[in-house]
Each structure stands twice: as structure tokens, then as C-alpha cells.
Prior knowledge:
With 393 residues, the chain is an alpha/beta fold.
Amino acid sequence: AVVSTQSTGTHKLSRVIVMLFLLLVAALQHCQAFLAVHEHTQVGKPGNTGELLSQIQDKEIAVLMYGARKCRHSHRLEHIINELSRFYDKRSATFVSLDCSRAELADHCRSQHIRKYPTLRFVYLGVYLKTEYRGERRVEPIKEFIDELIDHDIPVLSDISKLEEIRTDQNHRCVMGFFTSTNTDEFRAFKKVSGAFHKQCYFYAFVNEVQSVALIAIRDAALGDDVFSGQLEMMSIYTWIRDNCRPLVTEMTFENAEEVVEANLPLLILYRNGTDPDTVNNFTRLVHQEIRDLLGAQILSVHVDGNMFKHALKIANKSVESMPVVQLDTFKMFKTIGYEDVLKESGMLRKFVLDTLDDSKNMEVASNKKSIFERLKPSKSRYSFSAKVHDEL
């Protein structure tokens, strides 16, 4: 009986040793696989601005991840970027991880207005885009976002009669290029530059052997069309398209609200009832006439569907039936004015904006009525902030 017990114990010990050995082999294989992945990653880690420039020069697209050494969100995203980089060769895209907590990179991060970590930005054709990736932090959606920049396509049409159809159906700004062939430098430049703005504008190319080259921007009805008059080369086209794809009054939804409010500028808001292009166009024309000089420096102007932002209307003691309504929200306070009131008297919109900005500036404490848009700013659950930056936000 004693021998039998000893034999059973020895057998169990052998099984444990074998299991431990198999676990050790599996762990070693996992480590080798992990190291193999990271040996083939193409993520650069520049120590200063000079090294950064050398890594991104002459690249069609550079993906820049701005992070900080002590930011846990940055470390998680860096692992994803490492894996993502394996899908691209260095000729089509380069990936860079920047530690903004390094003194040598602090000036560059400030120059790019990096306010939170991590921030995923892009350099396209040598130009720093304001476009920022704000979607899911997984390989697949980020790859899809990058591929849209690199491999985007634009409709090529030959029937000029489609022009009026596009004008009639278009709810967004669009840019039309007229070319003699798709095998020209002008067409290639137009197609490349359109990739940087494919989320802000629609792009169409009309190709006909007998027509001359031209670019026309179809803007909102308030501002009319704009015809390109510069040299047909990359940077001139880029600047012109950038200016024409930037609306004076941006549509704000829950999808792009974080990007809008992160600028931390007071919001001039037009609450409209559903789809109401006439109201938006009249308001845009008024903004252009009276306060264009304030846009981007002192305020941002947006229009929203009040049915989506009913709670904001309720806080302002307004209802869906009150729309359209105009509001200036400084995040410390907000004031509203009737849409018809700003239309009927010249200069009324400008006076309303300037008076509200002055009142907000002179307030010692914020109003008890909290701005609903304050809650849509970048969240601590996704980003890290320095104490100074978080106070600003």
C-alpha cells in the first residue's frame, strides 16, 4: 500500500512537471512572436524636431501619435500603432511616436496645439492636417481611416449635363475639376489634394478632350461659387481647396461635437428645426456680413438640429416650437436671441455677440446654468491632460 501511494505521488509530480514545461514552451513562443512583431514595426521615435523632420520628409503620409511618458492611454495606443505600421511600407506611410513630455519636443507639440494625450494627427503631402483621428482605438478602424487618405477616389464624369444635377442635389460644399484627361499632372495634383479634404467636401472631375482645365468650388447658396485663378500646382490647389471647404457656419452633431468644442472658443449656435437650408443660408450670409472678422479668433459659428439638442434648448427656456433660435455659449454663460430679431435690424447680430462676450469676460464666477456643450469636451476616460491644459479645457 505504501509503494502504491508513492507510485501515485510520483505520477502526479511527473504530470505537474510536464504541464509546467508545456506552459513554459508556450510562454516562450508567445514572447518570440511578440518580439518578431515589434522587430518589424516601422514606428520612429524622434528625440527632437530635427529627427522628426528627417523621418517624415518626402513621405506621402505620416501618422504622428503625440503622447506622454506617464500617460497610460498613450501606451495603449502606441501598441496599436506598432501593429498597424506593419500593414504599410515606408514609401506609402511612415509612423512616428512623439513623447511631448520630452523638453526637446515640447516646442513642436505646442506649435501643433497638442492639448491632450494621445492625439493622432497626420502629415499629408508635407502639410500638417488639422484632421485628427477620434474614433475607436483599434487597428481596423484606424487603418480604414488612413486608407481613405491614401487610396481615396473621386468620380470621373464625362457628361457635363450632370453639373446642374450635382448643384441641385448637393447638401455639402463640393469642388469640381475640369480636365482634358486623367493622365495629366493637373488631374493627379487635384486627386491627391482632394484626399486631405474628402470629409469636408465632395469632389468631382469632368474629363473632356476639348475643354480647358479649371477648378470651381460650389459653396453654400449664401456665398456662391468660387473659381480658382492661381497656378495649377499642388500647394496652390491645396490652399484654395482648404479655404473653400471650410464653412463659415459648421454643422455640429454629437459625432463631431468633441472636435468643435475642443477649440475652447465661445459657440454662436443656430438651432434649426430639422433640415432647413433656407434658414442656414440666411444665417450664413448674416455671419459673413457682420462677424466674419471674429470667426476663429473669438468665436466659432455652428448650426445644430434642435431636435437633437432639446436639453440645451430647455436649459435656455426655449422649446422646439421656438426655433429657429440663436445662442452664444461662452461655457461660463449663455444668452439667446430670436432668429428674426438678428435678421430684421442690421448690426444686431454683431452687437449681440460683442455684448455677450463682454458680459462673460466681466463675470467673476460661471453662471449656475451649466453649458451642456461643456460636457462634450474631451474626456478623462480617453485622454490625459496636464493640469494647465485641463484647466483651459
